[in-house]
Amino acid sequence: MASLAPAPEQRRPADMATVTRLDADTAWAAFMRRDRSWDGRVIGAVKTTGIYCKPSCPARRPKREHVVFYSSTKEARDAGFRPCLR
Ligand SMILES: [Zn+2]
User: Fold this and answer.
1) Is CB count within 10 Å lower at the N or C end of the chain?
2) Measured between alpha carbons, how far is 81 from 48 in angstroms, rounded to an integer?
3) What pLDDT is recorded for position 15?
4) pLDDT digits 0-9 by tens, 28-84
5) What is the whole-number distance in angstroms between the Cα of residue 86 and the centre of ligand 1?
6) Confidence band, pLDDT 50/70/90 cuts, at residue 18
7) 84 an active-site residue?
8) CATH assignment of 17-83, given 3.50.20.20, 3.40.449.10, 3.90.1170.20, 3.40.10.10?
9) Which is the catalytic residue, given 30, 42, 53, 67?
10) How many angstroms is it from 83 CA to the middle of ligand 1?
């Protein structure tokens, strides 16, 4: 009987952003639109400030290369980021 278990190399380290590159592009676009429908679905964390934001946050947008995306605030906090207060 064939095994359906995923190959070990498909697993990702726990501290990596869990969204794929395609999803990150989509997430970034949502941030640029300040799209409320993406709140709760993706978190953008700014490496230079240590702060994370939801897509609808009114704060000025950081440079794309400084942003990492997470799928939850818990993941962002676990990675050492603090919540944005805006
Ligand atoms: Zn913010």
Assistant:
1) N
2) 10
3) 46
4) 999 999 999 999 999 999 999 999 999 999 999 999 999 999 999 999 999 999 999
5) 5
6) low
7) no
8) 3.40.10.10
9) 53
10) 7
